[in-house]
Fold this sequence. Notes:
By secondary structure, the protein is of the alpha+beta class.
Amino acid sequence: MTGLLDFSDTPFAALTEKELGIVRGRLGVASFAQGEVLKAAGDRWSELFLVLRGTVQAEAPDGTQRHFGPDDLVEGRDLVRGDRDRVFTAARETVCLVLGRETVDWLLHRNTKFRHALAEKRPPLSRMRAGMPAGDAFTMARVRDALVRKPLVLAAETPATEGVTTLQERSGDCLLVSDDGRYGMVTGTDLLEAVTSPAGLSQPLKNVATWDLVSASPDDFLFDVLVRLTRHHIERVPVFEEGELIGLLEQTDILSLFSTQSASLGIRIERAESVAELETAAAGMVDLTRMLVDRGVDITLVLDLLSALNERIMARLFGLVVPKQFHARTCLIVMGSEGRGEQILKTDQDNALIVADDLDWPQCQEAMNRFSHELGRLGYPPCPGNYMVSNPKWVVSVSDWETRIDHWLRHRDGDAMLDLTVFSDSHPVAGNRQLFETLEDWFLERLTKSIGFIPSFAHPVLRFQVPLGFFGGIRKADEGVDIKKGGIFPLVHGVRSMALDAAIHETNTFRRVDALVARGDMDAPGGEDLKAALEIFMLYRLRQQMEAIAAGEKPTNIIRPAALRRMEREQLRRALRTVKAFQARLARKYHLEI
Length: 594
């Protein structure tokens, strides 16, 4: 049991030894079935509740809700202030520690510090996000705060030659094409390419335009739009409000607000004409990461942006190494944390190549050996497990991939499970993505027919012990804990197992959780707590790794809780508690035994 039993957290840290002794002797335990009411609207609180297991839902008269999970005090402020308007019910089977109202009133009158601490708002874990400070303009600015330019719009049937004239007269480099309520985009580059086409500039603009546009809305966060621009290799997006075009947002206008190096870094990556130029661009990743973390940017936004930049680096290197005629017959995929989009610092290479069955390319392995070598030059060291394209085992035709996956699913031994775990997080980054998508569809369909596979696959979740002691404290707080083994892996692999069981295509853990919640396979409060826990693990690990790099040391997965601030230690402890509860739920769901 955590929370009240170690008494290191607010509000109980304000109590004297005598008061603590009385509290210890009067604590009780109460269980509530799903839907059971802890306090009805209009009633006075009779006890103070601390959630040990399950979820308590608070609903106000206007319908707004708040949820309290493991280690949350259930709205102690209401008890102090006498508020009675909300109803509190068990959202699922719930167990709480309870302290009677008489004892609480005695403490409130005796200890002013305790009263003030209990009256403070103490957010649930899912609200204790480890990232950006409130009000940070860098991450809170929206599209409506930026300069949204009035676009040049021409009809779809307008000859391309008129598009050239319009751009010259307006000194523009882009225009939009309207066709019965939908919009395409034509850039100066598109018009140059049209000149050399058989139809030339006499063809209508609709034939030159790109129609599948990435767009934005006025309420989108600018940082999210910046990630979109980076991921899709574009420099502008049309802005729509309720289906109506209101303007065009340029990447340069976003940069004028943020003054970040992320977009310029993306441009340098895209324009690199040699590995040496790409190496120079990639060297800026560490500084960009440090800047984002120092500014308090939400860790999920950092993950999205850096994942997009890493993808661009690998795609550009692929373009430099692999002859263009083979791009449509091959697909480079990244696996592991890079495939999930959860890699911040450059770590081991985890990649593979899917090759079309009819491809005749004798120099394929030679090119892949060079790719791995040059990737190492860019700061991505070789994978100790040899999960990389320089290993012929991971350069495979579509048919051979299917044979291998089928072997993994049937044999289920240690090596097969490890290989399947790595592959299940695959994401395409270069070449013909359709090769991967076809293989992924086949894999998920084959998986659904593999009876009893998921319990075997999920079982490693229980092999890694969460570093919590019997009374809820973090074990080895002074020595440090391996947060990858004790927190990240059981959470990520548990979510991965549930996602595969549900045939979900997403690989990112945060989006897998959202998909599981949307399907009803996971409750919303539990999903939010898992995402919050993963954010905390990743942020604290990243900060430690950045400090190690600055000191010239090799970054590790070790976090020293004793070096954290008190509130951060509480966040970490509650996040670990969330993972421990998740392990228990998985064990029940899939009938797992240690």
